Amino acid sequence: MIFRNLRSIKTKIFLSYSAILIVVVVLANVMFFLFAQQYFYDNTVQSLKSIARDVIGDDIEGKNLKKGITLAAHKYKFSISNVYIQATYKGALILKSKNLKNFKLPQLERSKQSMLSYAYLDDAAKSELIVYTTRISEDKDYIVQIATTTKEDKQHLEKILHMFLIGDPIVIIIILLIIYKMLQDILKPMNTIIMTAKNISITDLDQRVTYRDNGDEFAELAKTFNKMLGRLQSYFNQIKRFSSDASHQLKTPLTAIRLQTDVALKSDRDVLEYKKVLSSINHEIVYLQGMIDNLFLLTQMEDE
Fold it and tell me: What are the beta bridge partners of residue 149?
């Protein structure tokens, strides 16, 4: 399992990449959503301004505004849906689209030439409205207002959110599976080194790690590990030879001591003969003591 050992390098790298991936995806989604939100808003505002110019150019300009204009409805093909049109002259309503029925859009502040505002007319639109209000340049008392609902933009944004909620987990899972497979391939040489190290015992130091020399860190690690095994094998062979030689060197004086004691014990001897045997044994013991001291000194030098 992926999370069987949380202390393994593969699991730590996988979890790190997973966290980074999720953060990046979430940030990308937030940025895309904000961009889409701003794009829909800007597009709606530009459409409202364009419709306002069309209404002013087709139905208002060149007419006697002081006498007022009575027009019950407009029939335009707009680039956006649910368009509401309203015009007032000196506070009197002179132009209104039929879909506004008995409702009015909020009036422009008298100090402003044009403005954007929001309104909510439940019976008219059953949704929030974006209202663009502007004055006619040749007669400041004439106000034209174009409005549309935010419902369509919200529907587009909801579709984007649904796409994120459905698509992001699938994309993340696919990418994580790819990352996990890549980690397995990348860490395969390390696993080979680990398995080789586990299988090597003191009797088969001639084993070596098989690797592809592609110049990466794992190839260098395998090469270094093989060199270490070579040195260990060489040292172990030296120790075996030294042990064999030391065993032979120790066995010879011990054998001589045993033979002399066996001969001396077979029959009664006078004091002079016993002294001679003991002197020979003492000589062999001194020889053994010197060899043991040399071995101890050699051990101390290797430890240092």
Answer: 129
Using an 8 Å Cβ cutoff, are 93 and 86 in contact?
Answer: yes
d(CA 292, CA 68): 127
Query: pLDDT tens, 247-299?
Result: 777 777 777 777 777 777 777 777 787 777 778 888 878 877 777 777 676 66
Phi, psi angle pair for 180, to nearest 5°: -65, -40
Q: How far apart are CA 139 and CA 64, in angstroms?
A: 10
- Measured CA to CA in angstroms, residue 269 lies from 218, 234, 255, 277 at distances of 74, 52, 21, 10
The dihedral through the CA atoms of 157, 161, 164, 166 has a sign that is negative
Burial label, 9 (beta-carbon count in 10 A; 0-12, 13-18, 19+): exposed
Q: What is the pLDDT of residues 217-261, one digit of tens each?
A: 777 888 888 888 888 878 777 777 777 777 777 777 777 777 777
Query: Measured between alpha carbons, how far apart are the two ends of the chain, in Å?
Result: 46
